[in-house]
Amino acid sequence: MTVLHTLSIISPTTALPAGGKQWFTAAELADLKLPGLSSAKRKINELAQAERWALRTDATGMPLCRPHRGRGGGVEYHIAVLPPAASTALVRKGLVGDAAQSAAQGEAANDAPVSQLWSWFDQQTEAVKADARAKLAIIDQVEALEAAGLNRSAAIATVAARSKVGASTIWTYFSAIAGAEPHDRLPRLAPQRKGGGETAEVDAGAWAVFLSDYLRKEGPPTLSSVYRRVQSEYCAPRGIVLPHMKTLKRKLEREVPHPVIISSRYGADALRAVIPAQQRTVADLSAMELVNIDGHKWDVFVRWPDGSIGRPMMVGIQDVYSRKILAWRIGETESAVLTRLAFADLFRDFGIPKACLMDNGRAFASKMITGGAKSRFRFKIKPEEPTGLLTSLGIAIHWALPFRGSSKPIERAWRDLCNSVANRPEFAGAYTGNTVLNKPENYGQKAVDLEEFKRVVALGIEAHNAQLGRNTEMGRGQHSFDQVFEASYATASVGKAKPEHLRMALLASDVVRCDRKDGSIKAYQNIYWSPAMSALAGQRVIVRFDPDDLHSEVHVYSLNNAYLASAPLQERTGFLDVAAAGRRARQEGELRRNTKRQTELLGLMQGEKLAALLASDPKGPMPVSPKVVRPVRARGQMAAALKPVTQEAFTPDAVASPETLTAPERWAAAMDRLNPVAPRPPALRLVDE
């Protein structure tokens, strides 16, 4: 009666017809004080979370957790998710019907409780499973003796003496598997230790300090150091008792998700590692369909032609399908010039690719390379900017995420070249090491000449492409990058480069304004001009030139990329160079003759005829009057100056008695009378003449 009264208080609308109650909330289970369950609602919720009650289903796939429709909301759980001891107690108390009882005891045709037992068993530790297997081995020994003719009591006694396990303990093993099928005995024999102690209470302030210290971006090395700091510097002065460190560790693992710990301590990059790496396939690509370009700074000291020493930068282009390095250029810095020259080599040797994968570095996202691309996200896109090399050739551009090396396959090639080329014997003494902490003992002893460095790098890249047994998707552990590329290149549709394409790749471009008088172009301390440039005076144009040969002519295009003219370099001449002066005179004479002929073709009217057509009588100025009149008001000293000044203002009688005031004082008093708003300067002194 007491139990029924308690249940009616918890759920007044719940009746107990045939079939009984099968769904219970955590609060109801706590008030029933069932064996195997805590009497605290919070502990039951923690158990439900740990054992994933909300995710369990029965044999038909129906969930064993549903929203609670009564007061307070929340969720309620089916009896099938409860521990066997708790469900049995509910049956004995008469709170559930026959259907729920059979489900709890596993005697019905529906085997949902058995599947749940096995699901629970799979989640247990190896120690729990080993314990269950040891018990099952003892039961098998007893049944073997029974099959030999002994009764169960004698068989249990024999096995107990042999295995050093008490006979009463073995009898409990048989009680646990009563009514179970032989293949379902193992999970029933596993110990179900629930723990009966109260959860240690952690001070809210201490827990907040502990979490804030442990989840800092600096990432303290160990949890124990944080625990000792919180205990000695926060809890001890306040008289707070801090539970054991393992208790805090379990609370941390239970309440703080693992991704939150990783993100807080190690940052967003480490958080990405929580998700498995994306697997991308190149099976749907072919050779030269997609190339990858990137820069790499070599760990070798090189001597440049001017005698300076530095680490060279290489811009390389790789075929994504085969992973073969197709073209490369070496320079002092990663620049758009190196990128343009590398693409020129690619166009000349292999053709024009369909698409290119690159990052948004200045060398690749510059206007010279990708100008006009709608997807470019570096620099501001202007309507008049020149069309870049890739954009002009219709090469699709794909941008890799910044600081995401895994999205560019060529990064793996750079690592291989560091291991196979950068530390070759030819570079002994010039190798710098791959990090500042990994410098060799002979660091900085010499520098390699640039031409020698290029020769060794070329040999290394050839060996890199020709190495057999590449374990890539297309190499399959057998072929080299060269073999994969050649097999696909033979049947691929690749655009061949024409001389115009090579010229476009080899010529840089820039937007300049022609001189407003003569139309010449002043760039790089040089002047470029031709007679056709006179018509472009003051206009903005695109100039294409070879930065490696600034003494050659430049080609002028309009902003919409239409060819206009070519302009040779105007070389400097000697001050007394007669031949140069003659050439200049001939240019001026030809210019005058051409201009005169063009003027005559216009048929301009002479001054008298033009004046007769435009003559008319003057009408005089039209009177106008302002529509808005702004009043002008004088203030301060200007207002006093505009007031009529009478002789009385300057008489001594109007100010004070002349016997009591000196001449400077009489003058000052008169000024105060004229301008009472602005006081006179205190340093005013007048000389009494």
Automatic annotation (TrEMBL):
<dbReference type="InterPro" id="IPR009057">
    <property type="entry name" value="Homeodomain-like_sf"/>
</dbReference>
<dbReference type="Pfam" id="PF02316">
    <property type="entry name" value="HTH_Tnp_Mu_1"/>
</dbReference>
<dbReference type="InterPro" id="IPR001584">
    <property type="entry name" value="Integrase_cat-core"/>
</dbReference>
<protein>
    <submittedName>
        <fullName>Mu transposase C-terminal domain-containing protein</fullName>
    </submittedName>
</protein>
<dbReference type="InterPro" id="IPR004189">
    <property type="entry name" value="Phage_Mu_transposase"/>
</dbReference>
<dbReference type="InterPro" id="IPR003314">
    <property type="entry name" value="Mu-type_HTH"/>
</dbReference>
<dbReference type="InterPro" id="IPR012337">
    <property type="entry name" value="RNaseH-like_sf"/>
</dbReference>
<feature type="domain" description="Integrase catalytic">
    <location>
        <begin position="272"/>
        <end position="489"/>
    </location>
</feature>
<dbReference type="InterPro" id="IPR015378">
    <property type="entry name" value="Transposase-like_Mu_C"/>
</dbReference>
<dbReference type="InterPro" id="IPR009004">
    <property type="entry name" value="Transposase_Mu_C"/>
</dbReference>
<dbReference type="InterPro" id="IPR036397">
    <property type="entry name" value="RNaseH_sf"/>
</dbReference>
<feature type="domain" description="HTH Mu-type">
    <location>
        <begin position="22"/>
        <end position="98"/>
    </location>
</feature>
<dbReference type="Pfam" id="PF09039">
    <property type="entry name" value="HTH_Tnp_Mu_2"/>
</dbReference>
<dbReference type="Pfam" id="PF02914">
    <property type="entry name" value="DDE_2"/>
</dbReference>
<dbReference type="InterPro" id="IPR009061">
    <property type="entry name" value="DNA-bd_dom_put_sf"/>
</dbReference>
<dbReference type="InterPro" id="IPR015126">
    <property type="entry name" value="Mu_I-gamma"/>
</dbReference>
<dbReference type="Pfam" id="PF09299">
    <property type="entry name" value="Mu-transpos_C"/>
</dbReference>
<dbReference type="InterPro" id="IPR036388">
    <property type="entry name" value="WH-like_DNA-bd_sf"/>
</dbReference>
